[in-house]
Amino acid sequence: MRARNKQRKHNKWSLHAIVWSLVGCVLILHLYSLVHHRDGVGEDGKVHFSPFPMIHELEEIEEELFPMPSARSKRNPRAEKRRPKRHTTLIEEFLDENSQIRHLFFPDQKSVIDPRIGTGNDSLYFYPGRIWLDTDGNPIQAHGGGILYVERTRTYYWYGENKDGPTYHAHDQAPARVDIVGVSCYSSKDLWTWKNEGIVLAGEETDLNHDLHKLNVLERPKVIYNDYTRKYVMWMHVDDANYTKASTGIAVSDYPTGPFEYLYSKRPHGFESRDMTIFKDDTGIAYIIYSSEDNSELHIGPLTDDYLDVTRVMRRILIGQHREAPALFKCQGTYYMITSGCTGWAPNEALAHAADSMMGPWETMGNPCLGGNKIFRQTTFFAQSTYVVPLAGFPGSYLFMADRWNPANLSNSRYIWLPLIVGGAVDEPLEYNFGFPLWDRVSIYWHKRWRLPDRWWAAQ
Ligand SMILES: *[C@@H]1O[C@H](CO)[C@@H](O)[C@H](O)[C@H]1NC(C)=O
Ligand SMILES: *[C@@H]1O[C@H](CO)[C@@H](O)[C@H](O)[C@H]1NC(C)=O
Ligand SMILES: *[C@@H]1O[C@H](CO)[C@@H](O)[C@H](O)[C@H]1NC(C)=O
């Protein structure tokens, strides 16, 4: 009897516990959604935390003051008044070779990042925009580039355009250009100390009919490894000086450090292809993504198994959105892409896009840039996307690579590398999803000076 009573009392108590636990759960869920909601509007100096084991210091919002030169406004006050918005004038300053604040965009020789002075306070720190030297002490020449990680040797290879030559205009209407030097390759174990591995695909000096004749255009080289053929395959944008050829070129090598053998060029699927990238999925299937139809849309399609050609499958995405400079990555089964607008060498606003499948549908989420100041965010920190590198061992954490083009002297263009974090708050809810978040937010955080966290180094 006693025992039964105790039993009943116990049962009653359990029921209470269950009810109160449920109430607690509901409350916690409610609180969680409230906190997330707050995050969503936190553009103003708040910290966005991702749900991944994270690197909180990289997620801090860092403001940046950006003074306009005073003398300029004195020069012609009426012209100053007529100027539409403050940010257009800053872009003009940026594009003006003789701007008094040019050093803010293109810091001079005195502030170089020099890995040979390895033990100082600045060791392993990225300084977006500064001149960055390789282990020989020369400025790194790898523009519009991408990174290949070779797991077996734990080495990163950075491929990019070598623009080490004079900038000129082929004719009045032509955009600024540098003759093709070739594709540079640099190697690194830490993403900071880069050894020059030389030009792994050289421009052509004499044969005028060669795609890579120096008077043509070679942009945005990207390299992926084919597990079946064991070849390193490079895709790039090849064009004539007037950008009318609009084709992709393909080259191949047995080694990451080349030399790469140039195979051929083609218009993928028969369409114009200008800014482009390739993306190797963890399934082993690789894709090409390129700006087409006068840069008004992107095309996306799988490559053949040997990565040397496209298949017949192609989807048009972001139709009418006029995006270029695509950079792709995958996070927890979702595909993400950063793109820029199309304004030539002038910087513009980045957008993040997401999809459940590479072949779409792709949805545009919004501007991923955080911190700095308004004009920084509206110009992708005065730069243009080129690649996104996953940080091994840190799910949700990436390195965002962009180019700060210097149209007056393209060889003196700079690299803007910043942390990119997936997670945390959602972007503005989509109209048809009834307020439920579909995609994790993609955030690129401005930092004047930053380094990969100790935990990342420890994992290397
Ligand atoms: C290194 O940092 C310390 C502390 O922040 C500072 O006192 C020192 O002057 C710095 N050294 C150099 C070479 O910048
Ligand atoms: C580029 O265009 C200019 C002017 O329209 C023309 O004179 C020139 O021949 C063109 N060059 C090429 C390589 O098509
Ligand atoms: C362009 O920049 C390079 C450094 O990358 C420099 O050596 C060269 O003198 C500059 N050219 C001009 C015309 O300013």
Automatic annotation (TrEMBL):
Q: Which domain of life is it from?
A: Eukaryota
Positions of the region Disordered?
Answer: 66-85
Quote the CDD domains the UniProt record gives: GH43_CtGH43-like
- Family to which the UniProt record says this protein belongs: Belongs to the glycosyl hydrolase 43 family.
Protein name (record): Uncharacterized protein
Keywords, in A-Z order: Glycosidase, Hydrolase, Membrane, Transmembrane, Transmembrane helix
The protein's matches in Pfam families, at most eight in alphabetical order, are given as: Glyco_hydro_43
Q: Which GO terms describe its molecular function?
A: hydrolase activity, hydrolyzing O-glycosyl compounds
**By its UniProt entry, which PANTHER family does this protein fall under?**
GLYCOSYL HYDROLASE 43 FAMILY MEMBER, GLYCOSYL HYDROLASE FAMILY PROTEIN 43
Q: Which PROSITE patterns match?
A: PROKAR_LIPOPROTEIN
**UniProt xrefs under InterPro entries:** Glyco_hydro_43, Glyco_hydro_beta-prop_sf
Basic residues composition-biased segments: 72-85
Any stretches that span the bilayer, and where are they?
A: 12-32
Q: Please, one GO biological process term?
A: carbohydrate metabolic process
